Give the backbone structure.
Amino acid sequence: MVQERITLLQNKRIVLGVTGGIAAYKVVDLASKLTQAGALVDVVMTAAAREFVTPLTFQAVTGRAVHTALWGMNSGGLPTHIAHIGLGESADLLLIAPATANTLAKMAAGLADDLLTVTVLAARCPLLVSPAMDGGMYEHAATQENLATLRRRGVLVAEPEEGRFASGLVGKGRLPETQTLIGAVRHTLGRLGRLRHRKIVITAGGTREPLDPVRFITNRSSGKQGYALAQAALDLGAQVVLVSAARTLLAPYGAQVVPVETAEEMCAAVVEHMKDADALLMAAAVADFRPQTIAEQKIKKREGSSDGLHLDLVRTPDILLTVSEMHKKAQTAPVLVGFAAESEHLLENAASKLRRKGLDLLVANDIRSSDAGFDVDTNRAVILDKNGGQEVLALASKAVIAESIMQRVGDLMIRP
Ligand code: C5P
């Protein structure tokens, strides 16, 4: 998989501390992907980590010197010539992955007997640890107490996952996948962004309207643009509730995901979360109609008959309209953003939707082109505002489109 550049990570200096667990081999991929995303990754390895992976491996994927010795002088372009001070001095983040039980214990006790633990004490940047260990070591009271101590001191912890260990045992203690760890890094770096303390509700995916226990009516929406919007909002420090009808995408790290299936379920979840939210982005493709009744048993064709099936469909609630009217009544004014996927008269239809639903912005997509709209990774769009303004977003990845939209939403939320 090609790692896209990530705006938030451009030229961020990340010190990646690698300690001695088998998961050390997995963070070679992490170091590579962070570098490809635009970060400057300085790897510090403990002696035990070097039993699993060599410094040369990390040097090859980061293109930067790897640090191992406490007593060495720094020759690797760090701000001071004393390596253990220089490493922590100007870093934006110190990430320890995998963090073994031993290193966590040393950190909790304030011990500093190698380059990594000295750097931990000298660093002034946020500290994120990703514990990974076999057997019951993670759940052991000693490890849990050490983690509680570190959390109390402001250390952020990326929870390990459950699954199979190298030993063959099963339990909690596996290092999360690279994309999850990149999410944790983004969440840590973004949390003080311009949208901190703002709650944003985002919907994604195509709703499913059941006909019977095995069939449903849905649409071609993948949820990718909505998930990219959630990630862009998280990168700016927002609290994100992602009301999702998409089922297969990896949830952005730090988002509260509320899974829904039908338009009615989505409406109820959005109304609930919009009571105290500052913005709503309705990127979901909500079904406009649902079957009037849901058959209790599977609908059967009659043997020997060529009769068709007649379905009675009724309207679903218009979620944006419902929220817009709810806030008019309460005299509150969250930022409301709609999306319009049209196959003809794009801008005329979009402008009328913006007025009718009482929106601040409407993002119009032309779904006729094959490189934009449903299911693909790229998009092109026009943002309409309620004063008649138009901003054209040229063909770009959904992540880049999401950042542009979120900047506009941010400008509206932080009104002078
Ligand atoms: O379906 P339509 O083109 O009207 O969708 C425009 C916007 O309204 C989208 O943002 C969509 O999520 C939202 N919508 C809604 N409730 C519906 C249908 C659409 O909020 N029942």
Notes: The domain at 199-291+308-413 is CATH 3.40.50.10300 (Rossmann fold). The chain has two domains: 7-190, 199-291+308-413. The longest strand covers residues 335-342.
